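Researcher: Re-running this chain for the archive, since the previous output was lost when a drive failed. Same request as before.
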Amino acid sequence: MLSETEIREVIKGKIDQDENLGEKVGESGHLGYTSYEIDHISKPVKQPGEIWKVAYIYTLYVETEFTYYPDNPPYEYKYKKTIFLDEKGKIVNESPKETLGNSFHKTDDFLDL
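Model: Regenerated structure tokens:
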């Protein structure tokens, strides 16, 4: 079985691959920066054939040149995704990411992994 650190590294790599992170300029010419935080990683669940199912929740933060606290904080988007790992940590299958909420609509339904 993979260690917690190895699983976290696979998840970080997957988020880096799936999301458009870092600095960017929008169509309007305004500067933005996208980062993320991993909120929760489920305990691996053994599947048939030496496969491990791992669900995780993460939040994307989108800051713009207009972001300032507390009046105009970054936009937040919360997602859940499930990946299936082999014994070497390679992703062999995955679910589509599920939107759990954002800055405009928050929900706690994600608590059931």
